[in-house]
Amino acid sequence: MDQWKNPFSRQTFAFLRDLAENNDRDWFKANSERYEDTVREPALQFISDFGTRIDEVSKHFDAVPKKVGGSLFRIHRDVRFSRDKSPYKTQVGIHFRHKQHKDAHAPGFYLHIAPGNVFMGGGMWRPHPEALRAIRQQIVADGEGWREVTVDPGLGDSLQLGGESLKRAPRGFDAAHPRIDDIKRKSFMAVATLNQSRLLGRGFLDEFTGLCGAASPLMRFVCRATGVPY
Description:
The protein is of the alpha+beta class. The chain has ten helices and five strands, in the order αααβββαααβαβααα. The longest helix is centred in the N-terminal third of the chain and has 20 residues, at 32-51.
């Protein structure tokens, strides 16, 4: 895309910092127009812009620039089971999901935007138990395929495998398996740590597209394991 105009700005981060200090409904209501102008509309524009590029990575993922029910996570927190009753998230979450899945645990590409914490991810975050077991079984069944994922130049160069792991081998898996450290993973995500300057750069759309491409070997593996196309 020639002359791409980055929709994000320093004001995006300024709003999120202020929200973290004033996380209540009255403040948010008084600043709702500012939220729309500096956070939600720029995020929706980025989703729309990446929608013109996403097929370069894979034709099986969606970029949906909708305020509700699309690629942008809602700003409201689910506080039903949380001790923290702060009503709003203080980050922007954007998830480009696989067309055959509809929730945050699906294969997808993710962009996280928060002051001091900007990163991109590709893969599956905490897959549902059936999918998690399928990925672990695929690592056992196709050790060479998994090795190719982990030695791909994208991993270790611009991306790192991230997420929490079990302390012990999951039930039904050999604790002495040579790839047990990967089998114990709860998520299968390739993560690139970014920062505010990179996010606000003129070339960020190209950079994000490139990072999604670099995550393709991992994404292809988890999609194959869970029975969806890549």
